[in-house]
Amino acid sequence: MASSSHELAKTGLDFGGHQSTQGYRSPCVYARSKLANILFTTELAHRLEGTGITANCLHPGTVRSGLAQNGDASGLWAIGMAIANPFMTSPEKGVATSVYLAWSPSVAATSGAYFAKCKEVAPTQAATDPVAARRLWDVSEEMARP
To answer: Residue 80: inside a domain, yes or no?
Structure first.
């Protein structure tokens, strides 16, 4: 699961600061996490080549999920979310692309792509960098080792 927010990560990933020790407040951290989702999918699709298994990434839209609606937000964030909520995608529409990718014969052989609204769309240049995708995979493996 990714997001069009990956577009905000214009400079790509910061491999020197991948732990975000400065906190999560910056929108750039969220954007980079969504960029990382696409890059992971790119590398996974590459690793699955020839197996008949596919891996794709998608943006479900801004889904009305209840975020910031149950007392888990305050101040301007809560007010902004309350105003935006009616304009967000319903959960039923938000899941459409996931279901499409899981069941549609028209994408059965498609792997390593990025989808939104049940259509393949081009992510940013940073999201199509195979060197960054491989490096992210390698760094993640290294960090996951005991």
So the answer is: no
Specify whether the backbone of 107 is left (phi greater than 0), alpha (psi in -120 to 50) or beta: alpha
The pTM of this model reads 0.81
DSSP state of 24: S
Active site residues: 30
Strand partners of residue 59? 116
The burial class, CB within 10 Å (0-12 / 13-18 / 19+), for 78 is middle
Residue 14 domain flag? yes
List the pLDDT tens digit at each of the 146 positions of the chain.
888 889 888 888 877 655 555 555 555 788 888 999 999 999 999 999 999 999 999 999 887 877 666 777 778 877 887 888 888 888 889 899 999 999 999 999 999 999 999 999 999 999 999 999 999 999 999 989 98
Provide the domain count of the chain.
1
Structural domain that includes position 127: 4-60+95-144
Assign residue 115 the CATH number of its domain.
Answer: 3.40.50.720
